[in-house]
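hey m, so remember when u said the tokens were messed up on ur end? i reran from scratch. heres the input so u can diff it against urs
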Amino acid sequence: MNPLRTTVVMKTDISGSTAHFHQLLAADLQALLSEHGDFLARHAAEHDGRIMKGAGDGYWLEFPSVTGAAKAAIAMQESLRLAQLSRGDDRLAIRIVIALGDIAVQDGDFIGDAFALAARVEAVTPPDEIYLTAGARLAITSAEIQTVLVENFAFKGFDEPMPIYRIEQRHRTRAIADTYILFSDLEGFGRMLDAVPSSTTVECILDALDAVTRGMAQEFSGTIRFNVGDSYCVTFAEAAQAIAGAERLTLSWDAVRCQEQFGCTVSIGLHRGTLYAFRSFLYGRDVWIASQLQSASAKLLESHENGIFVTGAVRSALSGTPSHNRLQPVRLQPLPRALVGIEVYRLCNEASD
């Protein structure tokens, strides 16, 4: 056995994973768990933490400080919530435990009271919460991270009741600057609903749209911020990813539409700007501009057409790319107040001569 060393240990666990994962195919489950591990590793690394080992759908991580571990845990939960704003009960939620104690490596495995206690605390930690052992709480920088006592728990294997604390997360507005905001919506879907289609038809359309939108977001590193019915908001870090994602969405939907004989087309508005998030609420002028662009530009489309429309800010960011030459100016009538003074372009199939 290697010598003991004092370590800050974090244990994560996906809440309600058994019921959720039973609905997934094996390949989809493996992809989800791999993506989740990468997500945790990125946030841990920002505070000098690292993954020690996996544990089912959870992970053991270690950090050089309790305060760093707490900041990483808060960031993990905030980012996970922000990426799933409209998923409701279907979203992934994690519980996190942070402990401080001596650990060692024996026969390739980690041992120590910190692991045993963290595993016990995990069982009483609710989803979306971060619990701390007493030792971890004493080592935290209280000026940066506030904690409150949950209660004293009697855990199996420990002689005395143990005081357990939780981190009080103070939600603040988060600005996501210089991002590319894509709004999409199905044209003709409302008219189809007026005709009172079967529930099976509606379900098939929405399931197919969800699949192609999520596939597009994953392929082009987009983040689905929310969706309501047949409308989606997706953000991208780069202009090239955003325009390529928009094209992939229209092409993929066209293929599905032709195969399934759906009568709906897709319209897309793309704008560059800043959005703000507070808890599960997204807001900001640029979000409204992207939404209004999608809604107003859809009126220019024929019944069989998809359309991708962008603002001048997006066109400028695409300068020097093939997509830039395919953007042609259009005039919106009537012009929404949000778009006054903003140039609007449509992505055409071929570059103009």
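this time it looks ok to me. The longest strand covers residues 174-187. if urs says something different then somethings off w ur setup not the seq
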